[in-house]
Amino acid sequence: MSLASAKMNFMDEDASSGSGDDANVVDGNKHQPGIPSNSGRRKRSRKATGDAIVDAMLEIAAASKMRANAIVKSEDRFSISKCIKVLDEMLGIDQQIYFLALDLFENANARETFISLKNTSAEMDDFDLELDELELTAAAAGYHYYSSITKQPCHSLSPSKGCGFMAEVLNGHGVVFQEMFRMDKNVFHKLCDILRQRGMLRDTAGVMIEEQLGIFLNIIGHNERNRVIQERFHHSGETISRHFNNVLKAVKSLSREFLLTPNPSTPPEILGNNRFYPYFQDCIGVIGGMHIPAQVPAKDQSRFRNKKGVLSQNVLAACTLDLQFIFIYPGWEGSAAGSRVLRAVLDDPHQNFPHIPEDKYFLVDTGYANMKGFIAPFEGVRYHIHEYRGANQLPRNARELFNHRHSSLSNVIRRSFHVLKTRFPILKVAPQYAFHTQRDIVIAACVLHNYIRRECKNDWLFSSMEGMTVDEPPDVDEHTDIGLVSSVQDQVAFSMRESVSAEMWNHFMNGWDQW
């Protein structure tokens, strides 16, 4: 017998029992004999409609009972991504309803209800069913969710202004905006325009690009966890994570544009200073390294443990004397020496290290070899600024004078690192992300650093570094690998360093009062 025939027989038997003393009981009310036949047909029609909806509700109950035996299948069926896909296929959804639905998808039961009701929700606006207690409870649960996404007003502001926090910061005082998003308002809005016009990001039904960027900057600018950002912006954890990764990818893609190519002309910072000109007139930038705390799997921890015993990634960077990054290469193990990282970069053309014009060079510190294109201080001679303080502050020979001025000029890389970490404190700790994401965060932070420097010369963090010296111990190993030095030393570079130091000392000894 077919299922349809069985259903009809069941309904006919139900109707035939509606006469005499054994009448049907629905919701505890006895029906009296003699009811007209059209009432029975209406009742059977309502019963059939009720069966369809109850079947949908019972799917939820069955899924709950079977979760322990089919957890993988169940999670896939009721996943957040599946719910979002179904939601996107529904036409005419109000933006506020869409936004609320995304928040509700954080709840596993709500996701199950949504998927189970997607084919029957159109029938639920005016259902009037007479069901037993268990079926009524199941139907009420589904109807309550349906009502929540079609009748309840959204608690947030319109998507054009984002959540209340976002609107408050955008319309608030500039100092508050700087503190929350780590840049000035005009710089922020211009960056949003770039990302929107180039199609790198797009406005969604519930989150505009301004809010997406705000979420990203709030995370890396304050090292906030996902849960904190959820409460602040009134979005689900999945929404926060999705937009964070989208913005990270978009900002990283700007690296080729905002990481500068070295200018072969003498930098104004050298031209305008008699301590550096003409001795360093061919310098085009400074190279240095920094260690950023990292989260890595247990099997990799020995390689990422640096000389201080901290798990870190070794980041090689080059910057201009204007505090802008030229090149950034994160992701090396914390145990790797800076000189080895630089050599690996130079040996790999795919790393796109900037071309060094003929007779030009970068300044490097004591952790790197002195070679063509890279001028290091003299080894075995005091170098750092703090070593020239107190009773022994005056240099005693040409090499000490050279090292002191070399240190003063190359301090720009430490100032750049200082501004970068101050603006984005996520770089001071080991963030809870996959390692490839930790690497990308470093690149994105440097891109934003350069963008802000280019668009806002009077940025408060950059302004605070004018005339300042960051006298901190270097992150990298200061002891150059001897084997590496002997294999790459360049006599031209050594001779040039000697001649510059001799000329510098001669001018100093002949009455020049600045050193």
Overview of the molecule:
This protein has 515 residues and is of the alpha/beta class. The protein contains 23 helices and 7 strands. The protein is 51% helix and 7% strand. A 5-stranded mixed β-sheet has the order 5-4-3-6-7, with helices on both faces. A two-stranded antiparallel sheet has the order 1-2. The protein is elongated and about 120 Å long. Mean pLDDT is 80; it is low at 1-35, 119-162 and 482-489.
How would you summarize the topology of this molecule?
Elements: H1 3-16, E1 25-26, E2 29-30, H2 37-66, H3 71-77, H4 80-89, H5 95-104, H6 108-117, H7 133-150, H8 164-170, H9 174-181, H10 185-197, H11 209-222, H12 226-233, H13 237-252, H14 255-258, H15 268-271, E3 283-293, H16 301-304, E4 312-319, E5 325-333, H17 338-347, E6 361-364, E7 374-375, H18 398-410, H19 412-423, H20 435-455, H21 460-464, H22 482-488, H23 491-509
Parallel strand pairs: 3-6, 6-7
Antiparallel strand pairs: 1-2, 3-4, 4-5
Helix pairs in contact: 2-6, 2-7, 6-7, 11-13, 13-20, 18-23
Descriptive key words:
alpha/beta; two-stranded antiparallel sheet; about 525 residues
Provide a compact summary of the structure.
The protein has 515 residues and is of the alpha/beta class.
Shape: elongated
Number of strands: 7
Mean pLDDT: 80
User: Could you give the order of the helices and strands?
Assistant: HEEHHHHHHHHHHHHHHEHEEHEEHHHHHH
Low-confidence stretches: 1-35, 119-162, 482-489
Which sequence of strands runs across the widest sheet? Answer: 5-4-3-6-7
Range of helix content: 40-55%
